[in-house]
Amino acid sequence: MPIVPMREILKDARERDYAVGSYNAYDLGLVRGILKAAEQEKSPVIIAHAPVHFKYTGLDSAANIIVHEAKKATVPVALILDHGYDTKTCIEAMDLGFNAVMMDSSRLPLEENAEIVSQVCKIAHARGCDVEGEIGYVTRPVSGKDEGDDDDSIVDDKSYYTSPEDAARFIELTGLDALAVAYGTVHGIYFKKPILDIKRLAEIRKAAGEVPLVMHGGSGLTAEDYKNSISNGIRKINYYTGMAVSVAQSIKEKLEGTDEKVFYHNIVMDSIEYICRDISKSMRLFSSSNKA
Ligand SMILES: [Zn+2]
């Protein structure tokens, strides 16, 4: 199956009221685990690579693995550069075969953010690619250290949340294809129980019209959080940390529970199974199973 435009995947999600998982992958094991889950669950899927993971695998190496494997999939797959921080990286990702990019200039004031995102939209749309932008601010690692080392000290500060008026204005100025919004989720591990502002999400959805909304920080929420978010317009859920923690925990338990000789390939192949299991579970939570 050819790689499918993200806008088509998200349009179907809107029409049939579900969300599609966007999963970060930077090695062959992750890509295989994610695609295996998607095929078993008969679910559309989005595979992402983010600059925070470039230190594990650079964009060009990861893109080659991801594109090659995605082309062999039997379900619709879109490929996105997650959190692209400049136009150059977005173009590089598209040159390497990603058919969507997130241009994340959400730390800038609205007008400047919109200016950059609309530039990327012009370039991307001319080549049939899609663009995600962000308005409001979903907290993310500020220390530049490892995954999960996030600063969520501003998690309860609603001044970072997306305002419906800003969402409408940002969409009008940019013409983007998907909009990441802040309404209580955070990247990485939650240190306190998140309380989602679903009322705000419902208002953003009204303001955003047909533009699909994106949840970042999709790990560690309850089934009800996902359900409420999806029924109020979330069509793409970025999910990585929860999987990374659960897979590592499974490997740890397996190694501690055996006295037999263990080879590296045993760990790699077991990891793919654990990744597949965790991602499959998320697809059922997002109601994307049996939608491919
Ligand atoms: Zn994110």
Describe this structure in a few short sentences:
This protein has 292 residues and is of the alpha/beta class. The protein has helices at residues 6-15, 28-41, 59-71, 87-95, 110-126, 164-174, 198-208, 223-231, 241-256, 264-285; strands at residues 20-24, 45-49, 77-84, 100-103, 130-135, 178-181, 213-215, 234-239. The protein has an 8-stranded parallel beta barrel with strand order 1-2-3-4-5-6-7-8, surrounded by 10 helices.
Topology:
Layout: H1 6-15, E1 20-24, H2 28-41, E2 45-49, H3 59-71, E3 77-84, H4 87-95, E4 100-103, H5 110-126, E5 130-135, H6 164-174, E6 178-181, H7 198-208, E7 213-215, H8 223-231, E8 234-239, H9 241-256, H10 264-285
Helix pairs in contact: 2-3, 2-10, 4-5, 5-6, 6-7, 9-10
Zinc ion binds next to loops.
